[in-house]
Write the structure tokens for this entry.
Amino acid sequence: MPKNTLFSGKHISILGDSIGTLKGFLPPYCKSFYMQNPHADCSGISRPEDTWWVRVLAETGSDLCVNNSYSGSLVCGMDFPSATHLLRFGELHCNPGSYHYPTEGNTIRKKLCSRTILPDIIIVCMGANDWIFHSPITADSHSKNDFHYAYDILLRKLRNKYPESLVICTTIFQKDNAVPDALHPVGAYNDVIRSTAAQHQCMVADLAAYDAHIETIDGIHPTYQGMHTLAELWLGWLAEIDKTHNIGGNSQ
């Protein structure tokens, strides 16, 4: 049995971009990068167990509620597939007749829901495409295309839709040399994620702070080894959180 952690026994939903995708494990309207885009064939990822999220779920004894990840999607904008669109932020729960994905050992399986399942935890893995496509950041902007404003709107909507869920926001782990642009450093987008999450009492999984090397296909999308590293970062962060909050007590 896995060690007690913040995730153990929880239903977890993901609101993400291409890095969280896998064909066959997303809502039907979501576009996948992995196992759908031919460019991803060289990644070595061909099954759920190759992804960072299945590795983390399996290791912590938690189940996937919904993975609403869409390749190429941004936080900015209010139209689909923006994260602020109702089909994205508002579809992170399971209804009777839809699927959820319990973990068994080191794998994950698809199972029909017989009841509504609300996520205990929502992981927001968004912002990389806003950085890649140079979404502006202006502290006092009220434009749907401004990253600061859009991220604030997203967290407001999530908190209103799922008031009992713990929301965890992740920072962007890619390095500036992946998309060289001195006017749009990745750190500026991460600062927005950190500050906005704090304003809405959300946790931050600050993966960028580890400054780890994550192997990628193209500077953006992790390979099989990169997914393993990303999962290890998540598990390391969870260990820190568990220790801080004494989750699991003195259990081994």
In short: Residues 18 and 28 are 15 Å apart (CA to CA). The two ends are 10 Å apart (CA to CA). The chain is about 25% helix and 15% strand. The mean pLDDT is 92.
